[in-house]
Amino acid sequence: xLSKNKLKYIQSLHxxxxxxxxxxxxxxxAKSVQEVLRSGxxxxxxxxxxxxxxxxxxxxxxQRTPVEIASVADLERAGTLESNNAALAVVRTKExxxxxxxPGEIALILDDxxxxxxxxxxxxxxxxxxxxxxxxxxxTADVYNPKVISASKGSFxxxxxxYGDIVSVLxxxxxxxxxxxxxxxxxxxxxxxxxLTASPAGGYLIMGNESNGIRPAVAxxxxxxxxxxxxxxxxSLNVGIATxxxxxxxxxxAS
Length: 255
Known about the structure:
Distance between the termini: 54 Å
Structural class: alpha/beta
Largest sheet: 6 strands, parallel
Radius of gyration: 20 Å
Strand order of the largest sheet: 7-6-5-9-8-10
Number of helices: 10
Strand content: 15-25%
Order of helices and strands: HHEHEHEHEEHEHEHEEHEH
Oligomer: single chain
Shape: elongated
CATH architecture of the largest domain: 3-Layer(aba) Sandwich
CATH topology of the largest domain: Alpha/beta knot
């Protein structure tokens, strides 16, 4: 059974300010906890049912991770999921290190993507398409939000991110007469991505806010405006779905 102090500590990580203060975040559910135990993240504590521990002792024992055996009721009380019959982990956050795309690589830039579920989905999509770097504006949802981690389905362990002033980064990338790498931006009035011949040299794909799109301060650095052609009457696409469609076409167009 979890002590009151440990329960209070774990519950505090539901909130961003305490995640930042403690330098830790929550990972919940069997698959996600298994993924993080196999990753390069430092796991501070695992709270698990006896069955989960017995089936996964090789993972916790290998990393010498402290384990607390708890009931399903304790897990659900401590975590954020409505149903969790396996485990949760307290994991140390990583240093916020700058990221840039290398030649031949595609990186994502997220400009004010605020919905945690969308961000988690984008992490999963990035992982599917082999995108390992995501640059996030300071107003983009917190990647350590439990909803983001849950929606990523373990992909957070294979994708790197950085938060900061993306306008400053873009100004440095395009500060020469010829940009080193292409900067694609998603716009309603852009070039049909189905007809795009993507540069094999790689570049950046910018995705904007769910309601307002890419901010003008960011849009000025886009070298190629692209769009997904509409054949029906829907007003818009979810930013996660749009990211998947655009990445798929960029991957095919550069092959």
